[in-house]
Amino acid sequence: MPEIQVTIEGNPKTLDDRDYSGQELRDLGGLGSRDKLVREEPDGTETAIPATGKIRPRPSDNFFASVRHRRG
Questions:
Q1: Can you tell me the distance from the alpha carbon of 1 to that of 68, in angstroms, rounded to the nearest whole number?
Q2: pTM attached to this predicted model
Q3: Distance CA 61, CA 69 (A)
Q4: Please, how many CA atoms are within 13 Å of residue 24, restricted to the half-sphere of its CB?
């Protein structure tokens, strides 16, 4: 199976070129299930990746936990 290179939480990862659930990507990045995983798009916007949703990562994708600022 072909492989692709992505980044999850700043760490380079080599993945099989296939569909992944959001939870699989969280697990690969060492993120908790409560973390909101997002993919950085080429235009700088963020796309949320639900835990149960399926996506096919693209070569050079950058995934990270989105940090929300809460007012206290």
A1: 37
A2: 0.86
A3: 24
A4: 12
Count of domains forming the chain: 1
pLDDT in tens, 22-69: 999 999 999 987 889 999 999 999 999 999 999 999 999 999 998 764
Q: Which domain holds residue 29?
A: 3-66
Which residue type is seen at 58?
A: R
**Domain contains 24:** yes
User: How many whole angstroms separate alpha carbon 28 and alpha carbon 21?
Assistant: 11
Cα dist from 35 to 17, 25, 31, 53, whole Å: 24, 11, 6, 14
Please name the residue that has the structure tokens 């939480």.
9
Two tokens, residue 38 = 């997002």
